[in-house]
Design goal:
The structure holds two protein chains of two kinds.
Chain A: H1 3-29, H2 31-34, H3 40-44, E1 54-60, E2 66-67, E3 73-79, E4 84-90, E5 102-109, E6 114-123, H4 131-152
Parallel strand pairs in A: 4-6
Antiparallel strand pairs in A: 1-3, 1-5, 2-3, 3-4, 5-6
Chain B: H1 2-10, H2 12-44, H3 58-85, H4 88-119, H5 128-149, H6 153-167, H7 170-180, H8 200-232, H9 237-245
Helix pairs in contact in B: 2-8, 3-4, 3-6, 3-8, 4-5, 4-6, 4-8, 5-6, 5-7
Classes of the chains: A alpha+beta, B mainly alpha.
């Protein structure tokens, strides 16, 4: 390898390292703003800005979904298995919205700790399987939990 | 001898001939794998337990997104080789890759958007994954525009290589965006060290499509690079000879 080529390799290496370091610092600085949503724990701890539109993400608590009499307004709890926030939303929910599913709600936290959402998005997880497999998994899971329950009793 | 082989391979004339022979050997398996992938993906694979049939768009979306990143790395790598060793062929491969990569990026963004509307409830969100993939599209467009803005091809190739190399930092950001930050986009299903969280009956068509897309890129980049060779070497004896024969 000629010295000229070695020099070029060095220069390219230095450039890549410089860009990587700059990008690292920039992303570190923007870290807060790159978060698409806050978790209920962060909101409870007061880390989310108050009085502004924010996004809250978490799982819809099983059995918490209540429809109001007007048929469009829904109220449900969003949890990160630590803290819980009650969300109220008027509008059409996405296909994937269901209890136990991850969602992201965009809205504002009211004085009474009720989160009024203007938009609710469903967050899909990375699991793909046929319905039969999902049923089988659920069956074994249920059997395991009922076994545990028996042991406790 | 080794060195000699590489120099012969990198000579435009040999490349032109060899690429011409290779193209059908890549294009035919690509077509067969695409047909097999689409058949297994759209007909044979079972519906998803949550998304039903809508998830099938991933057989296009996921390989396209993988290709968008893979082609960028190839383009930046070829650009670096061109910069360091001043090999013309590497420059041609780099610039020939850009429009293909841009198309795959566009395809990934559009199919993701079409899937996002019914599943997430929105066409677009500014989360880290979607935004970084959009930046990738702009990088590709920047590379194409920069190449066209400079008349001298060899100067253009150097400028393009530097832009491509600076942009390569975006690739790990795209890949890890779903792990570093909270995003609406889900985490990796296949490209992780753990067992893939996808059923085998769905994984097989996905991988078939991924290989088909790789082959598609391989033969299209050879076709584009051949045109680039003819264009750049238009004043050399062998190209003139070729033109006279046809």
């Amino acid at each position: 390898m000629t010295p000229k080529r070695k020099k070029r390799i060095m220069l390219i290496g230095l450039m890549l390292a410089g860009v990587a370091i700059a990008a690292g610092f920039a992303l570190q600085a923007f870290n807060e703003n790159l978060m698409f949503f806050y978790t209920p724990s962060e909101v409870s701890a007061g880390e989310a800005p108050a009085g502004r539109m924010i996004r809250v993400g978490g799982l819809v608590t099983e059995g918490s979904v209540q429809r109001q009499s007007d048929g469009l307004t829904v109220q449900f709890d969003v949890t990160d298995n630590n803290k819980t926030i009650t969300v109220q939303y008027t509008g059409i929910l996405p296909d994937l919205f269901r209890e136990g599913q991850g969602i992201v709600a965009h809205g504002q936290l009211q004085e009474d700790r009720l989160f009024v959402a203007a938009e609710v998005l469903a967050k899909h997880d990375e699991n793909y399987m046929p319905p039969e497999v999902a049923d089988a998994l659920k069956a074994t899971h249920d059997a395991a939990t009922s076994d545990n329950a028996k042991k406790v009793n | 001898m080794f060195n000699n082989f590489f120099h012969r391979m990198a000579s435009p004339k040999h490349f032109y001939r060899l690429a011409g022979i290779l193209i059908p050997w890549l294009a035919v398996p690509c077509l067969l794998l695409t047909l097999a992938g689409l058949y297994y993906g759209l007909v044979k694979a079972p519906p998803d337990y949550q998304q039903g049939d809508s998830y099938r768009i991933m057989f296009i979306h996921v390989p396209a997104a993988w290709m968008s990143m893979f082609i960028y790395v190839v383009m930046a790598g070829a650009g670096a080789i061109g910069l360091i060793w001043r090999i013309k062929l590497a420059e041609m491969v780099a610039i020939s890759s850009a429009p293909i990569g841009a198309s795959f990026t566009f395809l990934a963004l559009v199919t993701g958007s079409i899937w996002g509307k019914p599943m997430w409830g929105t066409w677009w969100v500014w989360d880290a994954r979607l935004t970084s993939e959009l930046i990738l599209l702009f990088l590709y467009l920047g590379v194409i525009a920069l190449n066209n803005a400079i008349d001298d091809k060899r100067m253009a190739a150097r400028a393009v290589a530097i832009l491509a190399l600076v942009g390569v930092i975006n690739i790990p950001i795209i890949h890890y965006s779903v792990e570093w930050w909270n995003t609406l986009h889900q985490g990796p299903t296949v490209t992780k060290f753990d067992k893939p969280s996808i059923h085998l009956s769905m994984l097989i068509p996905l991988l078939l499509m991924a290989v088909a897309f790789k082959l598609y890129y391989a033969f299209v980049v050879l076709m584009r690079a051949r045109c680039e060779v003819l264009d750049r070497e238009r004043n050399s004896g062998w190209v003139k000879e070729l033109a006279e024969k046809t």
